[in-house]
Amino acid sequence: MLTPQQIEARRKYMELLIRKAKEKALSAPDALLFDPQGRVLIDVELTQEDKELFRIGFPREKTFTASKFTTVSLDVTSVPVTEPQFIDYQKQSKLSDEDFKKLLGILTEPGFSDLSLEEQNVKLAGIKEIYMNLHPVSENKNKEQIEEEFDSLLYDLTEEEDFEEYPKIFDEYLFQKKQGILQQKYREQYQINGLSPDDQAQLSKFQSSIIPLQQELHFHLALASRTYAKVFESKFVDKQTEERLTKFAEIEKQYDTESQERQLRKDIKKQEKAKVVDFLKLKEIQKLTDEITEKKKTKDQLKGEYLIDAKSKLVQEQSKRQEQMALAHQNAMRRLQPLIQQQFIDAVAEAKKGGTLDTVILNEELDKARKRISIQAHNILMEEVVRATGERLTRKDLKKADVKHLAEATTATNNDLLHVDGALQQATWISGSDNTAHERGISTLADRQIATISLDSDYVPSRLQIRTPSLDVKEDISKKDAINDISVKLTALATKYDLKNVIRGKEGLAKAFTYNLHTAINDTLGDTNGNKQSEGARIILSGAHLYNKTQMLKIKHGAKRGEVIIPEAKYAPNPLCLVQNISVNGNGDELGYGGNSLRTEATLMTEMAMLYNLSGEPATGRAKEVFQLYRKFLMDPKTPSYPNDDLFFSNSEEGKQAIKIIGQIKEAWMNDAKYPKESPVEQAQTALKRMMANDLHHQHKYAKLIQSLSIFIEEASIAGCKSGNERAQAINGRVAIFDHEAAHPPSEIFDLVKQLASSPLDVSEHAEQLIEKLDSKYDQYLQSGASLVSDVDQGASAKVNVRKEVDPNMTWYKKPFAAIGNFFSNLNRNNAESPLPHLKQGKAGNMQAHKGLTKEMADSWEPKSFGKFLGKMDIFLSVVTLSGWLIKRHEDYKDYKAKATQEIQERYTNGKTGFDASAEKQEVVPPSVIADEVQEVVVEEQQKAIVDEHVVSGREKEEIPNWRTKRESGTFVIPPPVQGNTNELTLIAKKELQDGRPLDELSTTDALTETSSYSPKNTVNT
């Protein structure tokens, strides 16, 4: 729970970022690249003094800091201009903004009022002359009357209350007016002024749901550029490895001691057999020994010097490649901008064919444009990579570097993000990370904090909201270690976000935070589709219990382990973790007691999480009983401290008693006629009580409402699905709607929340009305702040789509193909959304790092192979026609290959022509600082893990408290290597888990394969 001081600091920090972004944008408005949604990306760097606001407003473990740069997605469509009350004086004077500002400056100048009248007139002479020219003598007024009016205006102006603040207020007013330039530039780029007033109003209404094509492509190519940097680094390391082997062979040959050692062994053996000691021979043996030792010493020294030099060269190579890729990315986006603008203009034309602008059709067309333009984007980027490097990559280079795995392990940027939405009147801050959802592994986290403020009210949510991909690891690890890994990760998160101090807790209950898990607990029948949903759910639930047991067993103050006194930081327990596992995509089993042990356990823990968050303060006696039973279960010596298999509370006698008590609590809540208070959070809590009492959380149709309302009211939560993108975005987007509505009373949505909270009867009917209104509102803001997470995590928008609904009145045999199609479509876990007309994400998935991104990278350098050229239908027709179709398609392929080869060669030639081989270093000018000094890209040293011990029940584990000491972004329990096959992360972590080998004991040779991740400073679109 944030204090008033922390809330104010958080607001000021975000407002400062927005102000700096606007100032940089206004420094060069003609160079900015705008998005169809009416936004522009600006990188902002704050001073250390400014970042003190971050430290106060985002209370964390002390080493956690803001990233060096924050990427601000600035909305330029809404430019509110508030005229100051004294503006009538300017209108009366007819002075320009510049002259009126000058007048205010003179009148408020220190000591001006102490000057004589003559001295004051001298200072005002210039302004007075301008005034007289603006008010010429006429038949009605002579010169003296006009001068009297001027003096009277000055007198009235200076007599105003708070007059001394007028220059500052007027400056802010002028700054607001100046922002209109940005809106004007955006409207010019996308020909908005050509639309009718009604069409402009429709576009404005759904502005935050329009696909932000330019912003998506910016992050898409940023991820590709960062991946290219790693490919070049991989090639360099391979070359270094060959050189090292050759060099070491030369050193071994030059300082070979084999023959000398052979001779030495013979001489020693001969002396051992001699009856008389030959001191002269012994002297020769000593001399030979010294020579061998000196050669070995020199050999080791030369190898060491070579390795140090090689490491230095690798760092230089990384710096060069990062600069080159930043430059390529920046230039590619400039060239791509006209294509993006034309795609939007064409989409608008298509959407207007019915007469008026249909924003649903507009989004359909922009979704198609994703596919059309991404191919061109990669071709342009390829040419710019050649222009920046002078080098040509091949499919072999990309395959050798395992480019798909590299892309999956790379974020588009590790900067913090700030999304500004003028329509929603909300700013959303998202913390940066170097880890991705698809590079999950042992002891690896890809968490991102999400925080919002209202832009036009004092409302600032006080909760701690963390988005994270699923914490479980199921590959290359035993179930025993997988469960323990969950406990370690929960400890890392609790430590990083300082949960024991951030969470206020409730009297009578232990402090706790919620893990809102949005993933289905199974896939139809068990784990049939390979995602291992059930296995993952079992691991997470068991791991949470193990983590909670660890907190219960924390050693007491002053206790010793051996001779070491454990400091306070090591024994203070973190809050408990309660898993609220409600599937939001309509798949898998619904919650409820019975059926199987997993379903029962997931239901019990979900109800305990809800019970904790919905209990009053202090908690009721019945709620206390439930958690006392849970404590008893955890502290029971029979409860394993390092479980081999499922660790389920519901299997214990205490768990069975808890289920009965919760049932009685729900029954009491069902008949509770208490009227909810006016606070939006308290209204939401009461509404959730109604739904829980009626077991609505057991039904898929209410899942998104319950999970989003839960996060809205929870003091601290971590939340996510398997990837932390698609289903997490659906929930976080709705939480943002609740934030907006809470900040702008009266609210139709909170009227419905209040109605649900106040009515013991017809609960499901009221809940469905609330869902309908919430979905309708969310449809207006689909591409707002929460959508940015997917862009930076996987280089593309989330591929979530609407579930297919079957008409209940239509039997399946009347439309069998539609029924079958809908059934198989809904097996796709990303088809998770309610019917939202503006949700058009069909082509988004192909742009993602683990889908089509690396294919398009490869296709831009070399033509596809014949096998890749053929589609599924081609293969089917080839079988049907006994290869006749295959022969025809082979002729088509030859034409394609010839044309593609020519186009690729032309792009390479164009890029090579533009390459400046004499430039040792190409400077990258971030467009955000066009009017400022040139900033060079700095290669940040890969962070070393700092291993710190803490007690995990049953065994010792590593806990890394230092996440951002160097890189200043991301979360690392173990720092991920980014060179070569990034699966090395899991292998290293697994080995460390098994034999305790610390990462800082890596050899110098191993160190050569470590690389720093690249974060381009050109994240500003110009």
Describe this structure in words.
The chain folds into four domains: 444 residues, no CATH class; 92 residues, no CATH class; 318 residues, no CATH class; 60 residues, no CATH class. 53% of the residues lie in helices and 7% in strands. The chain contains 35 helices and 15 strands. The strands form four sheets. The protein has a nine-stranded mixed beta sheet, with helices on both faces. A two-stranded antiparallel sheet has the order 8-9. Strands 12-13 form a two-stranded parallel ribbon. Strand 8 and strand 9 form a beta hairpin. The longest helix is centred in the N-terminal third of the chain and has 73 residues. The radius of gyration is 33 Å and the shape is globular. The relative contact order is 0.12.
Q: In this structure, how is the largest beta sheet organized?
A: 9 strands, mixed
Number of alpha- plus pi-helical segments: 35
Number of separate structural domains = 4
Strand residue percentage: 5-15%
